[in-house]
Write a structure and sequence with these properties.
Order of helices and strands: EHEEEEEHHEEEEEH
Distance between the termini: 8 Å
Shape: globular
Number of helices: 4
Length: 219
């Protein structure tokens, strides 16, 4: 039997990070208690850095924006205007208690969404997130192709309810990533849909995310 679709919430403007975490915590508690259903919450944040559970202090190069220590998996990442953050409050008790499969489904959802705009996103072993090959850029020193990250993923589970989620770059200020080593990975860069030459709006991305969700999360 298929699951009822999650509630989609899109918040206008910039949502303070601490407010977002508090709201997620409250909703996850309600889902676990059976008082609420699943929710996908789409926001933008003011410029900030978050430190996941694996963050290394050496990867914080320049704390030019507020730094929030958070319980999600992963290392340092950036959030800011022009980046769509999707908080995924989904019940893995009903969707299968398999963390690896869940993360792969999130990556696949991003890849399917990017395909709507002709972008080939790819997964890489040992590198969580979604990557784009850049043959237009010089290869790395070891001769391997240059790749840029376009989406980051970091989740947390409580009683098998997920929260935190993913971030896709539409048109953020990419120079803001210069204050960190994104996700602890050196050598590769960061890109966005607009940086790739695509005039994609936030509404365009939101529509694609909603259209492609069931392809990976059909219950």
């Amino acid at each position: 039997m298929s699951l009822p679709p999650p509630e989609w919430v899109i918040s206008p403007g910039l949502t303070p990070y601490a407010e977002a975490v508090a709201k997620m915590e409250a909703h996850v508690a309600d889902v676990a208690a059976g008082r609420a259903g699943e929710r996908l919450w789409l926001v933008e944040h003011p410029p900030l850095y978050t430190a996941g559970t694996s963050a290394q202090q050496a990867d914080l190069l320049d704390a030019r924006f507020p730094v929030h220590v958070t319980g999600r998996g992963g290392q340092y990442t950036y959030h800011g205007p022009g980046q769509r953050v999707v908080y995924t409050m989904l019940n893995l008790n009903q969707r299968g208690r398999d963390v690896r499969a869940f993360v792969q489904s999130l990556e696949g959802w991003v890849i399917d969404t990017l395909a709507e705009f002709g972008v080939m996103g790819e997964m890489r072993c040992g590198r969580v997130g979604v990557w784009v090959s850049r043959p237009d850029k010089a290869p790395l020193l070891d001769g391997s192709p240059h790749e840029d990250k376009i989406a980051a993923i970091g989740i947390k589970l409580r009683r098998w309810i997920s929260f935190h989620g993913l971030a896709i770059n539409v048109e953020p200020d990419l120079s803001h990533y210069g204050g960190i080593v994104p996700c602890g990975i050196s050598g590769h860069g960061v890109t966005s849909l607009v940086d790739l030459g695509l005039p994609v709006t936030m509404d365009d991305l939101d529509n694609a995310l909603q259209a492609r969700f069931a392809q990976r999360f059909d219950g």
